[in-house]
Amino acid sequence: MIRNLTLFAVTFVAGALIALATRAAWFDPHRHAAAEPAAGGEYAPMVSNPLTPAPSSASPVSSPAPTIPATGIPASVSPGAATAPHAHHGASTPAAPTASPETAATAPVNTVCAICGMDVDPKLPTAVYQGKTIGFGCKMCPAKFKADPDRYGPYYLRNEVIKK
Fold first, then answer.
1. Are 142 and 127 in contact (CB under 8 A)?
2. Residue 82: closest CA among 99, 70, 94
3. Beta pairing, strands 127-129 & 132-134
4. What residues contact residue 68 under an 8 Å CB cut-off, 6+ apart?
């Protein structure tokens, strides 16, 4: 039995080495590659970028196009063209929310849920412990807190995760 397994392993390894040597000998990574362009020839652009200046045929070496300060946009491009795709980014931006006294009073005092250790999810309901609002990290935590608030409450107020 051991003789058969040894013979199989030796034959397998020999076959693998022969296949590897054959593939290495026939491997030609540049077989399908096109020839390089003749001297002075141009490569085709790999990316279509409308903001790239067109090559100048008058002088082979050209100076960089003047740019608009603080933006890096070429001066030859009209300002409307550069901002048109992104015009919606600031047009109707809502004002930053201001903290009203009602919101500040209901904002959780903790940023981490003491039971599960996750960040507080503002979409979940909150609870009040010793006059302070507490936030939870998952849907399971409010029920656990409600069952034993004196166990979990101090950890919430210190913004710590309870050690299990």
1. yes
2. 70
3. antiparallel
4. 74, 75, 79
Query: What is residue 164's DSSP assignment?
Result: -
- By 3-state DSSP, what share of the chain in percent is helix, strand and coil, each rounded to 5? 35, 5, 60
Q: Is the Cβ–Cβ distance between 87 and 96 less than 8 Å? A: no
What is the mean pLDDT of the segment spanning 4-26? 93
Q: What's the CA gap between 19 and 23, in Å, rounded? A: 6
DSSP class of residue 147? H
Q: pLDDT digit string (tens) for 18-41?
A: 999 998 888 877 666 665 555 555
How far apart (Å, rounded) are the C-alpha atoms in residues 66 and 155?
60
The pLDDT tens digits of the residues spanning 75-97 come to: 555 455 444 555 555 555 444 44
